[in-house]
Amino acid sequence: MLLKGKQAADFARKPKPSVWAVLAFGEDPGLSSDAAHALIKAWTPKGATMDVTTLDDDSIKKDPSLLFDGLEAVSLLGDPRVIRVRTSGDKIAALLIEAIQKGDSQEEYYSARLIIEAGGLQKRSKLRAAAESAQSTACLQLFADDAGDIEQRVKSVLKAEGVEIIPEALALFVGDLPGHRNLANSEIEKLALYARGLGRPLDLNDVRALSATDVDHNLSAAIRAALDGKPALVHSTLDRLAVAGTSGISILRSLQFETMRMLDAQSRMASGQSNPGMKLRPPVWQSEWGMFSARLRKWPTKRLMRVMERIYEAEQQAKSGSGSADPVIRVLMNEIARAAELAS
User: Fold this and answer.
1) Cis peptide leading into 282, omega within 30 of 0?
2) Which InterPro entries match (predicted)?
3) Which of 121, 230, 275, 328 has its CA 20 to 30 A from that of 90?
């Protein structure tokens, strides 16, 4: 059973009782991790504690019994159990497929439930195919959030703390969040801790005081530098991102998001909308509109569409290669910066 996007995220929060195993996958490992947390919460009976065993590729490859014995074992305290496996999708695919097929052959074949967290899986992936075809296994394909989804997630976390946030501050905070889900979650948690006991709605000054990590600032700076035509600044910020361990796919996602926002702006301007910057997600404030509109003049719609094509090509190239994606990303960002420089 394959579910995608919002349906996949909704399933993780409220899984079908007949499903004993879940394969959660997506380019951002933070999405799979969040889905696993939601599943564990949903599977934990009220008043009980879930016994969670976490395994990875190396531990299972070295000793496959860790997987199968773990699935078969019953908790000494009678607590429900989950085996949580983080995998690249290749090293132990055969063992995971065997586990899925055995669990699917008979109701309650195993004592524990199974969650498999993987990165991006192509349609030809045998692990993905096994999960899709199994009757009692759910295959969840997770995609990056859009701005509206992120806003709802932030408001939900703050609501749990009994805190409100003014719309301008929410838009600024969401716009500054890193593209990587785990980093974004960390920033949201930091905001919630700051807001606890504040006694008033969060405002722009609060968000600026707690603005996102250096990683995010460098990521935003790299994207702006490329689109503004500043190759030297692009490479220096990419160097800092590499030191911080930022993935090439996260950089591509951020570039894609900003390109789509610029396409939205071009469309709104072409249709004659007044104050189009405030209708974007996140909005462009009046004080920022001068620089943003100058950027738009360098990137008309046709050129932005070409950037989208190059992002897709770079992503395919990064995924198909056996080495690091960093050289592919650097070449693309340099090409964009050079093109913007010439447009100046």
Assistant:
1) yes
2) DNA_pol3_clamp-load_cplx_C, DNA_polIII_delta, P-loop_NTPase
3) 328
Q: Tokens 């989208």 map to which residue?
A: 308
Distance CA 254, CA 226 (A): 12
Could you give the CA distance from residue 314 to residue 249 in angstroms, rounded to a whole number? 9
The parts of the chain modelled with pLDDT lower than 70 are 75-77, 145-148, 176, 178-180, 183, 211-217, 244, 321-325
> Which pLDDT value is given to residue 84?
94
The answer to whether the CB of 154 falls within 8 A of the CB of 170 is yes
pLDDT at residue 178 in the model: 63
90-111 exposure pattern, b = at least 16 Cβ within 10 A, e = fewer: eebbebbbebbeebbeeeeebe
Report the alpha-carbon distance of residue 31 to residue 198 in Å, rounded.
Answer: 30
Element (H, E) at 193: helix 181-195
Contacts of 71 (CB under 8 A, 6+ apart): 83, 99, 103, 110, 111, 112, 114
**CA–CA gap between residue 62 and residue 321 (Å, rounded):** 26
Strands 81-87 and 113-118: parallel
Domains and CATH numbers, the chain: 2-141 (3.40.50.300), 147-209 (1.10.8), 215-343 (1.20.272.10)
Q: Where is 81: in which H helix or E strand?
A: strand 81-87
CA 254, CA 282: separation in Å to the nearest integer? 13
The whole-angstrom separation of Cα 89 and Cα 319 is: 13
State the number of CA atoms in the 13 A half-sphere of 154 facing the CB. 29
